[in-house]
Amino acid sequence: MSTPITVAYGDGIGPEIMEAVLLILCEAGAKISVDVIEIGKLVYDKKWSNGISPSGWKSIERTKVLLKSPITTPQGKGHRSLNVALRKNLGLYANIRPCISYHPIIENKFGKFDTVIIRENEEDVYTGIEYRLTSDSFQCTKIITRSGSERICRYAFEYAKKHNRKKVTCLTKDNVMKMTDGTFRAAFNRIAEKYQDIKAEHYVVDIGMARVATEPGNFDVIVTGNLYGDILSDIMAQISGSIGLVGGSNIGSEYAMFEAVHGSAPDIAGKNLANPSGLLNAAVYMLIYVNQVDAAKLIYNAWLKTLEDGIHTADLYKEKSKRKVSTKEFAEAVVNNLGKKPRILPEFIISSNSGDSKVSKIRYDYEQNYKVRKLVGSDVTLAWNKSADFDQLVKLFESSNLKVIAIYSKGLAIWPGSLKSSSDQVTCRFIVNNEKRTVTNNDVNDLLIKLEENSFDVVRMDKLYLYDRKEGFFV
Ligand code: NAD
Q1: With the C-alpha atoms ordered 328, 331, 335, 336, is the resulting torsion angle positive or negative?
Q2: Strand 373-383 versus strand 425-432 pairing type
Q3: Mean pLDDT, to the nearest integer, of 329-343?
Q4: Which residue minimizes the CA distance to atom 37 of ligand 1?
Q5: Which residue, 61, 24, 8, 11, is CA-closest to 305?
Q6: Nearest to 427, CA basis, from 457, 470, 454, 465
Q7: Which helix H or strand E contains 260, and what residues bound it?
Q8: How far apart are CA 385 and CA 405, in angstroms?
Q9: Measured in angstroms, how far is the CA atom of residue 360 from the centroid of ligand 1?
Q10: Beta-carbon contacts of residue 435 (< 8 Å; ≥ 6 apart)
Q11: What is the pLDDT of residues 176-205, one digit of tens each?
């Protein structure tokens, strides 16, 4: 019986590489029945703001598996990223990107490496929540949850265990983002304790990425947040020889999506030049996910043999290559090699593959982890003109239940003191005047009304809480 899968040809080089990949899947006897949907530019043009139509969603809801080519994300008003929409709507919380160097067949500067990047896929700044605050300032919201962080870290350790990996490295910027990245790192530490046989280490993301980019062979499994993971996987793909090589899986508890790491490459679209390997690898992970390991193995080995034969698309073509081929010719060469095995490269590196339904079934529910939450104040952001007077503002609230204890400009305390705001917005921290009194929502409402009545231009408000007496806010 064949497995139904939804296929999307995408934009730019998408259709060329998808045709090449489907030819190989078909010739390898993969038992799949394909339901083609439109995504990307054509759909955006028809005014579906997510780049996918209701019938597209229906197909994915039915098959639960999507093989997707890249799309061109339109710039401008009203368009939302299709990739972000798919990952969030389908609950695809884990993005797994195996980055392998194929040394010595594909030239790269670092020799042999085989590193799997596990990127959190639903949170972070990729939630796309952004605001314009004033004429000068804009704000992007970074959301990190304990449950989401634990779930992805647990996924990474389960993956390492299942695939006989020895080490999991976590990358965060918790020295600066103590609450958000601190939560991710704390989750990593908690989960790591449960996997004593697997080495766990942490790097601050800047030095961590520098190390990965210069000594990739020292890294095994890397788990990190959405933005860092996105950047890191492009770097790793590029240093492995070509961005066109790496494929990835997006896994959730119900759905899965498989795609190349690269984008729609408009510069080479329609020229039959693109390397279809990234999407082909993604398709191999998909076959493993739908329990067609034999077909996956057949294709992967034929692909390795093709690379070994020196049959390379333009992005990989170097001195040692034998034939420079088009997208279509590359696919035909892989088809001709079906049934053959590589001689130098390790055949079917199952430990580096990702589509693993068992690992994907991790569910994580959030639970309350504090006893008492107490409202103690509010941060209020104001549009601010240069001649305005901080002392006048402070004086206005001197005898109120909430008084100003500090004024910040982009996180820098400028009052008390004589520093000036470097932008047209300031954030005032209001804290309860008398610690014995409780703060209520009405106090916060009164505060906002009083500000407005006195012509202060409120553009944002955040409540300040203590969680079991511990501050739930930083600046
Ligand atoms: P890109 O990955 O499309 O291209 C970067 C460079 O790599 C280009 O020079 C391109 O020619 C080359 N390249 C990419 N894939 C290749 C392949 N398979 N074979 C040979 N060369 C290849 O990145 P970009 O130019 O920054 O983005 C182009 C568009 O793709 C943008 O609209 C972006 O938003 C979108 N994008 C989509 C996805 C996705 O759908 N998953 C991912 C990333 C970017």
Answers
A1: positive
A2: antiparallel
A3: 97
A4: 263
A5: 24
A6: 457
A7: strand 256-260
A8: 20
A9: 27
A10: none
A11: 999 999 999 999 999 999 999 999 999 999
**Packing angle of the helix pair 293-308, 277-289 (nearest 10 deg):** 160
Selection from 225, 219, 44, 216 nearest residue 144 by Cα: 225
CA distance 395 to 338: 80
* Residue 267 CA, ligand 1 centroid: distance in Å: 9
As for ligand 1, residues whose beta carbon falls within 6 Å of it are 13, 70-73, 83, 243-244, 259, 262-268, 274-275, 278, 315
pLDDT at 60: 97
Q: Which of 48-52, 254-258, 395-399 has the lowest mean pLDDT?
A: 48-52
Per-residue pLDDT tens digits for 398-447: 988 899 999 999 989 999 987 888 889 999 999 998 777 889 999 999 99
Residue 433 pLDDT: 84
pLDDT above 70: percentage of residues in the chain: 95
Decide if 196 contacts 161 (C-beta within 8 A): no
**In angstroms, what CA-CA distances link 97 with 126, 221, 231, 363?**
18, 10, 12, 21
Beta strand residue intervals within 336-420, DSSP E: 373-383, 402-409, 412-415
Q: With bands split at pLDDT 50, 70 and 90, how would you rate the model's confidence at 351?
A: very low
Which token pair is 22? 């489907």
Nearest CA to ligand 1 atom 36: 263
Give the atom of ligand 1 at the shortest distance from the alpha carbon of 275.
19
CB 93 within 8 A of CB 152: yes
Q: How many A from CA of 364 to the centre of ligand 1?
A: 33
pLDDT, tens only, 142-183: 999 999 999 999 999 999 999 999 999 999 999 999 999 999
pTM of the model: 0.91
Closest-CA residue, ligand 1 atom 31, reads 72
Residue whose CA lies nearest to ligand 1 atom number 10 = 265
Please name which of 405, 402, 449, 453 lies closest in space to residue 427, comparing C-alpha atoms. Answer: 405
> Are residues 120 and 229 in contact, defined by beta-carbon separation less than 8 angstroms?
yes
Alpha-carbon distances of 441 from 57, 225, 401, 413, 436, rounded to whole Å: 41, 34, 12, 26, 16
CA distance linking residue 264 with residue 214, whole number of Å: 27
CA 33 to ligand 1 center in whole angstroms: 28
